[in-house]
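Our preliminary data section would be incomplete without showing what the modeling component actually yields. Below, a chain of 357 amino acids is followed by its predicted structure, encoded as tokens that our downstream tools consume directly.
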Amino acid sequence: MPKIQRVIVIYSPHSGRAEQLSQALEYLRQMPIELVQVLSITELDHLMAQGTHWQMAGIDAAIAAGGDGLVGGVASHIIECGLPLGILPLGTANDIARSLNIPQDLRGSAETIAQGHLHAADIGVARPAEQAPHNMSYTPFPTAFSAPSYFDHALTVGLNVQFARLATNVATRQRYGSLTYPFAALEVLKNHTALEMHLEFEGLALFSPEHTTQTEQILAHEPVLLSCRTLQATVINAPIFGGQWNLSIPGASLTDGLLDIVVIEDIDLGRLSNVITSIFNQQEQNAQAHLQMASPHMQPAELTGMPGVHHVRARGVTITTNADPQDVTLDGEIRGQTPIHVQMATQRLQMLVPAQH
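Predicted structure:
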């Protein structure tokens, strides 16, 4: 068990519970933990990864005091040097913390930082598609998106990006307060745009038809392509969604070395809520039982039999659309554009979690 004594705390002034930052810091001091520096995430904008610099200054851990977007931003600074990451869950949903069983109460999360165990968790990485291992003739990104970006929770293209533009807008938050998320959701549903999307999966997980009660994972050797008119594509690392509702993607894991990829085609919006509910409630099953519902070339990989919905697992995926560039969210923040290549990072993130995790 690591001895955490000196930490740097990075916070977001726009997190859902940002007003509780002072109390969270006081709990850390009571552990006792030395707060070497407390800085806003905005101070790290446009800087190269700072993790190695923090390590050389004697920092034992970097603490993300905020929500999922902030956790992903801090992780990008430390993943390559191995500095441990702790979380003070001051966000609205805190899905990454929930996925790791980190207490939602601030005293409990502070105790986890001081007394918890290190847990090596998977982390996703996104790059402009022209930097992907299988180089194709895509139009290059603007310079701002040329470096790889890491995400702990999820990467999305489609409806959630339109939602994020509204939900993370400071003026919108100030005007609607706790109603910001419902307002943003209604606006997106009224004005949504579907995209012609092309997804090329690498290391697609296939499932043996001989097994009916237990799946046998085999990775495809060749890329597999899915093209469809799409409302949203979500590349998932951490399995928990929905904040206090604690919804979970069946079978998803932070330690399996695979990304869960959910693609919702341009279905009738009246079906959307039922489809989303079914995704979270489905039981792990062999997709061979629902072959008639799946796209023929995707049949061996499908984890759901719902028409218009694809759930697969893969090492990576390249996403392009008919209208590139399209904004992409990483951990709920707009930090990329299509065409984009997404894969599991070779490094694993060292997380401070409760001892019983």
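The first strand starts at residue 6 and ends at 11. The chain has two domains: 6-115, 124-344. Preliminary results of this kind motivate Aim 1 of the renewal.
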